[in-house]
Amino acid sequence: MTRQIDATAIAARIAQGRGSASADLVITDVRLFDLVTSTLTPTDIAICGDTIVGTYGRYRSARTIDGRGRIAVPGFIDTHLHVESSLVTPFEFDRCVLPHGVTTAICDPHEMANVIGTAAFDYFLSCAERTIMDLRVQLSSCVPATHLETAGARIEAADLLRYRDHRKVIGLAEFMNFPGVLAADPGCLAKIEVFSNRHIDGHAPLLRGLDLNGYLAAGIRTDHETTSADEALEKIRKGMTVLIREGSVSKDLHALASLLTVATSPFLALCTDDRNPLDIAEEGHLDFMIRTLISLGCEPLAVYRAASFSAAQAFGLTDRGIIAPGKRADIVLLDDLEACAVSDVISGGRLVNETLFQSREMIAPVGLNSVKSRVVSADQFRIEATSGETRVIGVIPGRIITEDLHLTLPVRDGVRQIDLGQDVVKVAVVARHGINDNIGFGFVHGFGMKRGAIASSVGHDSHNICVVGASDANMAIAVNRLRDIQGGFVVVSDGVVRAELALPIAGLMSDRPYEEVRDALNPLRDAAKALGVTLPEPFLQVAFLPLPVIPHLKITDYGLVDVNRMELVH
């Protein structure tokens, strides 16, 4: 949704675009990367307020930015992300990501909404009114995501309707309950009906064939859970826009890169979904995706289209995505096109710098004191033995899809034991919303853990406490420490807390600057490695173990979940 402007403002744009009046701002001497022909053309860019009014010409203004022959490309659009997964507030996310060229971010406050309900929408929309980047909101469609877990809230169609026409709202966020859509569940249909004339995001891992047709027939238009080029090709052929994802855990870029060509670029866009400040500092954000895709052989024209114009078109943001008169002045100046070396960023006609960030009106955090779990003891993590093989969650590094393994584990005194020789340790989910005292138990393969425990209050999507450990006593200490610090990440060994990061805002976000959060993640990684953990992102990998909408075997506070059957494992 774009704002309406009056005749005086329109007249000013016309005059400045024609050159009969001085522009408000001119970026001089750039080489404009043409998203139509892929040429680089020397030009000025004239800006009136927050809108581009002139290209392919020379302009005058009292205010100029010296382009110095740098390359101008449209601001990047992250088409799907959860700000909460950056572990910082929307204001700190703004500071962290905008210098990487991301001038528009489309977020789903699904994580916070599962903890505090529609108060998450109020908070994010208030922040979005004040961020320097254009932060847009998709309203969370599945709170809770399934009936097989305990969430902190429930959001129905009537709750969503109250926010539908907010100027920062695009539509309905990832509809992850695709079995409910295919079964024409009344609750699912009610939400889709409310947004039937708006954008609806999809969430359909491995959905193919006629079932995919039925899902798309409901009016769902995008998907970020596509993990193979073959799957992506079927989806774009059927009119879906596939969002190529490269997050801190979910890494699909290499698998999908071969599909991105100039011909297919109108049907592909880029997203990060979940990316933390340390990865952003070490690699980048969408700029990292752009240079990686180009290094893999994708044509720059196709990649920059996907990062801007195609993304804007897919989400109805027709006022941006290309550097052209009448479009929003979101511009990235690059020192190198193929390396996506961001030099300066202009967001809504404003040159991005620290002074600009300091001018924002801040919003007080919400969701404090949300971790309401009771104190747990080591004996609560005992798993009584049953006959036969044990179903074990198999972690796949860099994927949120897990395997459903069937392994023989040792038994001692009637209690099922971990087996370090098979790389199998315990996993548990402890309810933390104060609704019940559930604890779900299981085993997980693939962490490499030899001792201790790691725990997280970031546990998609209901964000109960998830703990993985080789010791019941250390698991209990880790869970109780999270209760004390009101959420975050904890590493414990030999009965001692070795590293922690407090996330007191809904148990998901820090109230500290992103630099402090970034710097705290390295000691956490080191402490996890000291336990023997071999996963590059162990905390986010833990966070996705309780996600019962992603195949194949997951765990919630109810117990193990067979996602393919959408039922508990007994």
UniProtKB/TrEMBL annotation:
Keywords: Hydrolase, Manganese. This is Adenine deaminase. Belongs to the metallo-dependent hydrolases superfamily. Adenine deaminase family. Residues 71-352 form the Amidohydrolase-related domain. Residues 400-566 form the Adenine deaminase C-terminal domain. Its cofactor is Mn(2+). Pfam families: Adenine_deam_C (PF13382), Amidohydro_1 (PF01979). Gene3D superfamilies: Metal-dependent hydrolases, Urease, subunit C, domain 1. Its EC number is 3.5.4.2. CDD domains: AdeC (cd01295). HAMAP family: Adenine_deamin. It catalyses: adenine + H2O + H(+) = hypoxanthine + NH4(+). One of its GO terms (molecular function) is adenine deaminase activity. It comes from the Bacteria. The lineage of its organism: Bacteria, Pseudomonadati, Pseudomonadota, Alphaproteobacteria, Hyphomicrobiales.
